[in-house]
Each structure stands twice: as C-alpha cells, then as structure tokens.
Amino acid sequence: MTPHDITKLIVRTSLKDRGAFDLLYRHTSAKLFGVCLRVLRDRAEAEEALQEVYVKIWTKADRFAVSDLSPISWLVAIARNHSIDRIRARRAASADLAEAVDVADPRPGPEALALAGSERVRIFQCMETLEKDRADAVRGAYLTGESYADLAERFGVPLNTMRTWLRRSLLKLRDCLEA
Amino acid sequence: MTRAGEFGEDGGGDDILAAEYVVGALSAEERRAVAARIDGDAEFARLVERWEANLAPMQDGFEPVEPPASVKRRLDERLFDVTAASAGAPAARGGLWHSLAFWRGLAVAAVLAVVVLAAQPYLFEQSEPQTNRLVASLAPRESDVHYFVVYDARTADIGLSHVTGERETGRDFELWVVEGDRPPVSLGVIPAGSTVHLAVDQALRVKIEQGAVFAISLEPQGGSPTGQPTGPVVAAGDLRDI
Fold first, then answer.
1. Under an 8 A CB cutoff, do A146 and B68 touch?
2. Which of B25, B60, B79 sits opposite A147 (nearest CB)?
3. Domain ranges for chain A
4. ipTM of model
5. For residue B241, what pLDDT is reported?
6. Do B24 and A138 touch (CB under 8 A)?
7. How much is the pTM?
8. Which residues of B touch A143 (CB under 8 A)?
9. Is the pLDDT assigned to residue B85 strictly greater than 50?
10. Domain A92-179 classification at class level
11. Which residue of A has its CA nearest to B235?
C-alpha cells in the first residue's frame, strides 16, 4: 500500500467511512503498536494506548487535510505523542529507566539505512554532527519518550544542564536541517 | 531564572519549545501547556508541524509489532458499540460492504489493478457478450492475496488461479460477487490449490456478465456463518473481456 493509498484511507475515515477505517487499521496498526510498545514498554498499556490512538484517528482524521506530514508520519506522530503523554502521566519507576537504556537503539533501522542517499536521511546526517551522548539524548527522547528528568538521571547531570544540552542540540539540528 | 529567560538565552524561543515538545522531553505539565497552545495558535502549530516533519525519518526506528486481534475488537466496541454477538450480523449498517464510498474506491482501484490488456471494457448494453471468457485480476488489498479469475460464459465456470498470499490457519477465503450497492452474493469458499474451479448458477451468471465486481474476504473455516462477508476484503477486482 502506497502513501497515496493511506492518504485516501485517512480522507475516507474523516468522512466516517468505517470500511476505510478498518483497512487503515489493518495496514497501520502494527507500526503504531510498535510505537506504543517502545514508549510504554508494557504490553497491556500499549494495547490500551493503541485503542485510544485509533479513537483519536477516527475522530480527528479531518485534521490530516491541513497537515504537511506524510500520512504514516502523521499517524505515528499521533501514536507517539499519545504514548508520551501516557508515560508522563505514570510515575517512572527506576526499573523502567534501566530498561530504557537497553531499549534505546542508537542505530538507524534497516528502513533508514535503505533510504541512505535520499533527502529523508538529512536528519541522520545532522544527528552525526552532534556529540554522541547528545545525539543519544535526542534519540532517547524521540524513540522512548524519556523526559528531561529521565535523561538527566541516565546521563548523570543536573536537570538544567540536560535542558541546556538538549536545546542546544535541537538548535544545532535546526541549523543543519536548514543549511 | 525564568523559563522565558532560558529560552532567550538559547535564542530558540517558540521554535525550540516546539522542538522540545516534538522530541518528547517535556514534563506532563509542560506538554499540556504546549498542546493547548497548538490548538489555539496556528503559527505555533506550524512550528510544531515542521519539527514533526524534520524528525519524522527517525520514526523508522520503531519496529512494527502486530497487535492482538482483541485490540481491534475492543476498539470497535468502544467506537461503534459493536458487541461480539452482532459484529457479524448482515444487518449491521455502515460497514465496509454497505459503504458507497468503498465501492466507488474499489471500482477505481480495480480499474487500475487490472493487469490484462483488455481492448474494450465489457459493455453490458450488448445483448450477447462478444467473447465467452472474462478475466479479472483480484489484486491485493492490504494483504498479499492475489488471484486471477477467468470466467467462462459458455460453461458457466469460474477458474481461479492462485498468484500469491496464503490463508491463515483455520481461516478460508470466500469469493463474492458484488453488484453496485447490493449485498454481496457468495460464490463459495475457494478451495485450496493453485488452480481451482467454482460453478456459477444462472442468477449469478447474469450479474457477472453485467459487470459485477469480485471480492475475496477472509472468513472462518468453512465460510461466512452469516451468508454475508464477516472478515476483511483481502483482494478485489472487476472483469474484462478477452
């Protein structure tokens, strides 16, 4: 299924076409469940979150029309933001933090590697311009939803230092992306 | 030092706040405030969107994991108040099979998907088909199930050639003929095998020869218990004469 096909399904979902919604779910739920699991690291909670994510997609599909994101990126953004909101709502146990270090995978996935050379890997090239631990912090936040507090603990620095690190990294990324 | 001062020092302002939100490092309270801002401030929302787009390639780091089927069932209950007892009932309205938009989309997709170089679409105004054989490529729909159909008007026989896609254990593929918005009519469960044949009765012959669409749904073993499709459409296509 091409991005164009997914776009059509989202548009039809916004018209409350249940058939389109079912197809959209069948085609995208594995990716979005992967997002929920990665961030929440708890199967039952990820299942609950996935349901909530698709409730949002069903009720807010019309917003896709005004988004510039690719359809799958738009869907993943919903799942990721929802999962991060959920994990913030729960107190991070220290066990979670230890696990997060293992789960945070600094390597780009096979899909990312396959895209090498295309414009889409710009962000990966820009990440390379960051010091390794700073890039790890950006990735940790993005892929596993680690907060400033989590990151400060993981890297053993004060919270404000972590804020400054990450903001500077984001500014550097922006400059690189816009260059 | 105030938060605003910190932003000022970093020189990022709203743009960096948007980036912090997108990257996911903010606290619950900060995220709530930013989310409210996104809803009420279109310019700020655009900054967030640009960061989402910039960082989106990192989404490749999320490996897909198939969720259990129970999630979709609970989702349907939640959204559509569908209980397990009524989920498969043919009277359930608003579903895939009753959606005009779906069939319109399907018709478009089917036209694009036909792999046969048909010289002319079948014209149902004609009283007699000019040829005896019609073919259809039943192209995959969010699946890898692909069948090739040959309908022989002379012998009222449907030959199905299996191209790709396996049925799950304990499930069957069922072939349907669909005419416009009418309820689909079953041609039966598709037997396993690379080339299989199904007989067609007179009523269905008329439908098929008038340009009905074929669709394959995934059903419990032995076929749909309700006489109407209960599972997802895995392949569909329409006929072209050869």
1. no
2. B25
3. 1-90, 92-179
4. 0.84
5. 54
6. no
7. 0.57
8. 58, 61-62
9. no
10. mainly alpha
11. A23
